[in-house]
Specification:
The chain has 411 residues and is mainly β. It contains 3 helices and 23 strands. It has a single domain, classed as 6 Propeller (Neuraminidase), CATH 2.120.10. InterPro entries: AT5G49610-like_b-prop.
């Protein structure tokens, strides 16, 4: 090719179309270190808000939230779709119906007991020998179930004369399979507290922890009534030993079992058991009903660890809220940052006690007063009426869930 007289361009740039015009200056950019090169990621997906409270599972079925509760419409749709009669679960070992013992993450822990004469409002008081334990876990919305095997004799035989005093579903982690679950049974005899755990991944029971108690000078509870304080969010199980001012604490993540001395366990009376919710710093806060002004137990007291106190066992008392005085209240349980209460109007309560409700022939449902069930958000201190029933229950199991299109099978 003939030389046109134009100087050869540098690099791979083509010759300029107009030789007299200035060439644009090209600047080389410095290369970033390899670890500075990050791929473009899509924006993070919004986190789902905590599931709303839909209602209570009790021994006689599911009781959905009712208007004007904000979850009433969602709760009604859920109640219509789910089966809380547990008719899809095969009959248990005993000639008694399945009863709920705990609710967690869409699952219901069921028990079939050998005591048909127990009234439903009081049967959770009773403890049973481990050899009589008959359990199942079910998903009432998708009608799936898993029958748990009995605790093997060679395992329970390591500790003699054990009775259970606490049954609950342990929380599962986000990295676990969506259908995996764990069941924990707390059992004891006069000298030892033993933890039994069932895992769906292995299909077997084992003993992850036990604690000798004879040297501590305490006698373990013989009733489930003293052990209904769970904090599932932080993965802890609390048993309040009222007579000895102690807390039995099980960390279900690490399976550490310990006994903590405190001055709050003694606040237990006719208005129900103390309730435990973990505070923001992770320490347990105890709530109980008190009568500060002589108008009935309508004041919710909170007891927290005293910061900077001279004694490690110093606790701070605080009246967080005074409830409407026209009701007589009873504490039922606590979970997910909520306290749950039972209330009955004082004029209706005259001459009628919860003990009377154990005799079904004495009071027909038409004659029974309305029993109102409340939730109290500990953070906002806002009480809300969840539903009205005709039955007295000494414990109920709160059910939290998402709208039906967002719900997946849990078993």
């Amino acid at each position: 090719m003939a030389d046109s007289g134009t100087p050869a361009p540098r690099g791979d740039l083509p010759p300029p179309a107009h030789p007299g015009r200035r060439r644009p200056r090209i600047r080389r950019l410095p290369l970033l270190p390899q670890h500075h090169h990050r791929p473009l990621l899509p924006p993070p997906l919004p986190c789902h808000p905590p599931p709303p409270l839909l209602g209570f599972a009790a021994s006689e079925g599911f009781h959905p939230a009712q208007p004007p509760h904000p979850s009433a419409r969602l709760a009604r749709a859920f109640a219509d779709a789910a089966d809380f009669s547990y008719s899809f679960v095969p009959a248990g070992k005993w000639l008694t119906p399945w009863r709920p013992r705990d609710v967690r993450q869409g699952r219901v822990l069921l028990e079939c007991t050998p005591e048909p004469e127990c009234h439903s409002a009081f049967e959770y008081y009773y403890t049973f020998s481990l050899r009589d334990l008959n359990l199942a876990v079910c998903d009432p919305l998708f009608r799936r179930y898993s029958l748990l095997p009995p605790i093997p004799k060679e395992i329970r035989g390591q500790h003699k004369h054990l009775v259970d005093f606490g049954l609950f579903l342990a929380p599962t982690g986000e990295d676990e399979d969506e259908t995996a679950f764990r069941v924990v049974c707390m059992a004891c005899n006069e000298t030892t507290v033993v933890v039994f755990e069932f895992t769906s991944s292995t299909g077997q029971w084992h003993i992850p922890a036990y604690l000798r108690c004879s040297s501590l000078g305490i006698f373990m509870p013989d009733s489930r009534y003293t052990s209904a304080c769970h904090d599932h969010e932080q993965g802890c199980f609390y048993c309040i030993l009222c007579c000895w001012n102690k807390l039995l604490v099980l960390d279900v993540v690490s399976m550490d079992l310990s006994i903590v001395k405190n001055d709050v366990a003694k606040y237990n009376g006719d208005s129900g058991k103390p309730l435990i919710v973990l505070g923001r710093d992770g320490t347990p806060e105890v709530f109980f009903l008190a009568d500060l002004f002589g108008d009935g137990p309508t004041d919710i007291m909170r007891i927290t660890k005293q910061n900077g106190g001279g004694s490690s066992n110093a606790w701070h008392f605080e009246n967080i809220i005074s409830l409407p005085t026209q009701y007589n209240y009873f504490t039922l349980g606590a979970t997910e940052g909520f306290l749950f209460l039972r209330g009955i109007l004082q004029d209706q309560n005259s001459g009628y006690s919860s003990e009377d409700s154990s005799d079904n022939s004495a009071h027909s449902q038409a004659e029974s007063p309305d029993v109102e069930y409340f939730s109290l958000d500990v953070k906002t201190r806002e009480p809300k009426k969840v539903c009205v029933m005709k039955q007295y229950f000494h414990t109920v199991y709160s059910y939290f869930g998402y709208p039906l299109p967002l719900t997946k099978p849990t078993i």
